[in-house]
Amino acid sequence: MSKRPTYEPHESPSLTPEVRVDLPREASEQERLHLDRPAFRDWLELRVGWYGFVRKNLDEPMPPGVGWWQTLGNLLLTLLMFQFVTGIALAMFYSASPETAHASVKHITFNVTLGSFVRGLHVWGSTLIVVVMVMHTLRVFFWGSYKKPRELTWVVGVLIFQVILGFSFTGYLLPWDQKAYWATVVGTRIAATVPFVGDSLLLLVRGGPEVGALTLTRFYAAHVMLLPAALMGLVAIHLYLVRRHHIAGPVLPQRGRPVPFYPNQLFKDAVVLLVGVGMLIYMAIGFPPALEGIADPTGTDFSPRPEWYFLGLYELLKIMPAGYEMLATVVIPGLISIGMLFLPWLDRSDSRHPARRQWIITSGMAVILLIGLMTLKGILETPPPHEVPGEKEEVVAAK
Amino acid sequence: MSEHEPLLDPIDPQRRKVMGAIVGVINLGLIGAIVGPVVGFAASPMKSKMKETWVELMDEHLIAPGEIKEVNFSMRVVDGYHEVERKYTVFLCRTEEGVLCLDPACTHLGCRVEYQSDRRRFICPCHGGVFDEEGRVKSGPPPKPMDRHPVKIEGGKIWISREV
Q1: Backbone angles phi, psi at B68, to 5 degrees
Q2: Which of B7, B117, B123, B157 could be stapled to A388 by a disulfide with Cβ–Cβ 3.0 to 4.6 Å?
Q3: Are residues B34 and B102 in the same domain?
Q4: How does pLDDT run across B44-61, given as a tens digit for each residue?
Q5: What is the ipTM metric for this complex?
Q6: Do A394 and B2 touch (CB under 8 A)?
Q7: Which residues partner with B88 through β-bridges?
Q8: Alpha carbon of B130: minimum distance to chain A alpha carbons (Å)
Q9: How much is the pLDDT for A398?
Q10: Residue A214 and residue A205: Cα distance in Å, rounded?
Q11: pLDDT digits 0-9 by tens, A230-242
């Protein structure tokens, strides 16, 4: 006879009893767990501690003042899941070679049942994710939520930000159309501007001297293997840390006691998910994803432009004088990334209040303004096809 | 867990330390065993070398002095796992020195420049680089003149050499 395992109920956080999740009574729970044919949730409870898991997540304490702004993380996670699922579906029809990539994306878009919709969800999802990710980051920045003990939650968040930009960059090439090809020719050339190792780095990124078959397989491997693995690990750590330290309340603590995540905050989350995903579906149907002509290194009917969220960098490159492009490709983005990563240690003030973090708020606003204005300039100056910028001034730089 | 017996203390703290160190070394070896080959494999294109190939473009008499001609041609190149016919473009320009062959990639970030005959300038549509007819930078961000490919004339034909 095997010894019957004892059941130790999990402690739930100290919350008001009237809002607790409706779970079975303690006395009968023990018996139910060991019935010959237990209910599935009781069967699961004995093996994985199901009730504790549910309780922990639904009873997550929300400080007073937490509301709509705190729904963005959940929306971001949901949109990432949409990308994951639609990405798997697209990979079933996609073929990563210069001979077949464009044809396979064309097939997905025009022949496969719901192909345009699924690709639309993936394409528009990537844009929406960048928007929501920026809003989420700005919220945490202005609320000063990255301060002790949440420094590492912020750092992991910044890494997630960079991985998502990596997804955008690698995914952009996959349709192998004119837009994809030329954006990648230019984007990868940025690697060559790194001092000393630039040329080797360019070969590493492209998989050869020119954008070709190995660039495509390389970007595909990164897009569907390397980056998803990195993202899953980072998101798991991020969520663990968010749960461990709970949500930081408003900048100035408000009166009242924390309330559980369920039902108030979960309801707000659900409303935001409904709106966010609704918007995504609307865009996927209303604005089907485009596909330019197949990549042609000799074609002149195309002005290479990156995706809108890289336009700030693109414009910055325009205004850099000859010989200083490294400032726009390496130094400024590098400093912004390092500044973001080390933000919790750059901002030494004790207070989370923006008025008491003047220099960090001012620097942050300056960076946001710079990126915003450059992006806006890029969007407004989108030249129609064939139109090229004029000669500005005659500066003879050639020897 | 209440069912667990109390843990036995290690027999000898020194032994525990030595065994911990060995496990550490084994783990390092395991990491090296996976990271080393994979990095070497993935980074192998860094060793790739370009080789010069001559290609015949056109009859010499087809280009007049002062004229700029955009010439499309294709070459068989090895692209990773297969050999393909790849299309290229160059600009040929006959000057007093002879025939020049300019590569259309802007020296800033590699966009393809366009020749505007009315202004007699090469213009880069990306970041506004402007080059003159011999590929010298006239304005904008390009750090150096347009790349030139070696040219030779044999039997009345223009040949250029391109690294592929």
Answers
A1: -120, 125
A2: B123
A3: no
A4: 999 888 888 999 999 999
A5: 0.87
A6: no
A7: B73
A8: 6
A9: 31
A10: 9
A11: 999 999 999 999 9
